[in-house]
Amino acid sequence: MFVRNNAIDTMREHIKDVVKESGLIENILQQKKNDIVVGSFGSIRMIEKAIFLGYSNDMVNEIGLLEGYRRDWNLPGKNLGFLSTSCVKKKVKLKEERLTGRLIVWILKKGKAMESYLNENFGRVKPKHSSDESLRDWRTLCGVVKNPKRRFRFTANLAKRNEAAVMRRTNQEKLKVAVLVSKAAVHFLQGVQPSDYTLPEEVKSAGFEICADEVASIVEGHDSKKLKHHGGVDGIAKKLNTSTTSGISTDKQTLISRQEHFGINKFTETPHRSFWVFVWEALQDMTLMVLGVCAFVSLIVGIATEGWPRGAHDGLGIVASILLVVFVTATSDYRQSLQFKDLDKEKKKISIQVTRNGYRQKLSIYELLVGDIVHLAIGDQVPADGLFLSGFSVSIDESSLTGESEPIMVTTENPYLLSGTKVQDGSCKMLVTTVGMRTQWGKLMATLSEGGDDETPLQVKLNGVATIIGKIGLFFAIITFTVLVQKLITHKINQKTHWKWSGDDALELLEYFAIAVTIVVVAVPEGLPLAVTLSLAFAMKKMMNDKALVRHLAACETMGSATSICSDKTGTLTTNHMTVVKACICTKVLDLTKKVNDIPDNALKLLLQSIFTNTGGEVVINQRGNREILGTPTETAILEFGLLLGGDFKSEREGSKVVRVEPFNSTKKRMGVVLKLPEGIVRAHCKGASEIILAACENMINGNGEVVPLDEESVNNLKGIIDKFAGEALRTLCLAYVDLNSDVSPETAIPASGYTCIGIVGIKDPVRPGVKESVALCRAAGITVRMVTGDNITTAKAIAKECGILTDDGIAIEGPDFREKSLDELYYLIPKIQVMARSSPLDKHTLVRHLRTTFGEVVAVTGDGTNDAPALHEADIGLAMGIAGTEVAKESADVIILDDNFSTIVTVAKWGRSVYINIQKFVQFQLTVNVVALVVNFTSACLTGSAPLTAVQLLWVNMIMDTLGALALATEPPNDELMKRQPVGRTGSFISIVMWRNILGQSIYQFTVIWLLQSKGKSFFGLHGDDSDLILNTLIFNAFVFCQLFNEINSREMEKEDVTDGIWDNNVFVSVISATFIFQVIIVEYLGTFANTSPLTIIQWFFSIFIGFLSMPIAVYLKRIPYLLKTN
User: Is residue 213 flagged as an active site residue?
Assistant: First the structure.
């Protein structure tokens, strides 16, 4: 077997370019065999091997491969110098070719494939710039591990977030290099290995003439030689037992057979984490671990001094509290995990147009099988590996797979389409050749761990708050412990027993330490980020029911601060159910609600030819035998118009040969096709924005069907008709044609001028019901709604007025005019712009950028096309349309509006505000508990030498205010009152003055009451005897808990006095309050041994509840303070 010189040269040069770019050469040269770390990416190892193939023997000796090569082939002790860089530049001699060929055979012999060989010899080589610690589990580095459910204890480590971001960028680069080198390696092997493919018997018996691995290698390796060997694309289709026109058979047994031999189009999913994993994570909390140690020591010392079971009570009480906290936390996290997994599945639901059994239909990408004929258009994601069948101007963005920004043109000469890439331009039919884990994308996905959202901005902010408060709590905890120990030592000195320490003293010291630790537990508001996650998860689930799919958690909270919405017109403000209701053909305006029969024959022929050939839609017969129109709403409306005129789609399409197609482009605002007619004429048809097409026309067809020059009077007449149609809120399109020279090639661009105007159509797209009310709701909420559309300005203004967007003091402007304005003019104009017509994607991006950066607005933008991606990225919240939106737009968006309805956008804004307000309510509630618990225990310890709230009691309070409080307050549904407030905006403070007023007012009340009970409680209740301290402390604990319970109800409204409005509609809130009350009764009355409580009398219970209830009228008074201040 001889190695081809050009294959070797190409391979080596390619590899060298790639590896130099990746920066891995220096790393390999520095690594000794004995200190390499496990964890490299499988495909990345091809890079290291490729370096070996392209570089000097120094590195070969370094890695230790040379000895193995010599030993296996019994070669003399000479080096492999022929592999050096210098020799590559020379002609490779026959002897060296043979030796290199032997080397490749040896590689395949040792590993039976390059991958296994590299695993064996280079599995321990670590990539450059990766630490030993980060390489312990490679899969966790390929994505941020999704765990938004966990309790974020103490600190938000921003350094780790930055490190994770850097790691993600590094991994993207590694993926890029891996793909490029994998391709190069495949090409290299193809150059040195003979084709020895044999068809497996089981595949042959199933009716196929090619196996999955063989067809996969053709597409993945871009192997044109092998493709030609199998008869080209048509040959592959034949061997896969499919038709390039009708697709595969829908016979059930046939489909099952395809699945068995070629697989299904699904990636291997990461197994869902079990409940016990969340239990384990909850147990990792450092404070709980410290308390667990305290409980263990307490058990040992207690049992040793007091015996069993009395001596075990304190320790078991702490253990029970820890287990309860862990169980509730794990349950909450596990439920959220399931919820996020369901939402993740919704994100991945993508439908695609497929032809099966001769009928075109929509299928989920997961239902695709090898042999399917898939129809791709601009913005679609390629759902599997495949081969190009037919199409025009197909440009593929492979950046998601290779990292290369330059689009790849797909043609019959380069027919390879890879899963995960996106159609940037054009449209085509594709033959599916590889699905699921056999695709190149599938293989890369197999190496990635479960992905997830980073912490949201609010979580980061609250984690910072938690960190500061945690440090304050730690400071007070240390002082509290010091004071308590000092009191104990002073007491023993006074008693002259300071040299005698008993087990009771040890238990007391342990209790002091547990109290100090528990103060930290209570002081640290770790429930803040938990509340954010709970609220977001709750909102995301409810928004799914309201037809909004949230892709990124942060979008929920950001939408609550939105001050501006830039909305498309078509399909968002309107129904997107279009019909042609008027047309101007041969200078005559036709009302299509009546019968049309006065169009000259030659003009009608040109019109029908233009309608049926210059279109991205199709007229087909579905499985029920009915005629069905496929395509965008605009295309559907025009095709319906053509059918109404008596046209035949099939005969028109078959009556000419398509030479070139230019799909609709939102920048050029037109589409065109070049046809070769049977009589030898080459004709171009063009369709698009009426003003733009009309400006490209030099002739027109008059009332007699004759082609005449387009004079100024005729132009003004046609422009008047366009304005008349637009004034009736109709979308206008102009159709034109031009005959070309017969020598036009498929590469020749469609002319930009010289056309003959065939006619103008007016398309009705009714405004959606409820849009006007939704726009008014936004205005009342302080949100400015702007319409950004590609339509005629007159049409846009008419629709905007109908929707209530365009007001008397608002401005409507066209994109070209907007582009010409200076920065000073834009500064004056932008706040007043309410309608932008004839806008390009760049215009939309510029508008959004200025609104965000110059005016500081929080901007939400809607988009449906591929070219909307930049604006969706630029916006604070990108909203993609679920029905009309392309996959590119959806991937760029934060929220997908599943029903394409503007009213749903307003619902998203309402839910966003609800999330923000709910978290504010919870913060207000929790900080009140933090302040009171901290001050009460600290002051009591300093003044009396004891803490009224024990470790077990504080753990119970901690759970009330953390998990249960978050569940109760973070799941409040939105109400209409939310949309009567002004938005917070970009610079608004999260903890408002109103919140501080409520926090401080309640804290002062609670602290005063508890301190009065501490100092006067015994005399007030007539408590005497040995258990008086225990009863008083139980009373303080009970009153403190009921203060929190009623304050939780107060926190439902931060400004409204009526806090019970709608309370019975929130089942979660009622359940949490009820459960807290019941558990409090059980703890006080029945768990005294473990919780250090004593049963209370009816009067004491009434007094405890009454103290808690008094916080409600106090809250009412506090809420009136701002109004009193304003009045004064």
Answer: no
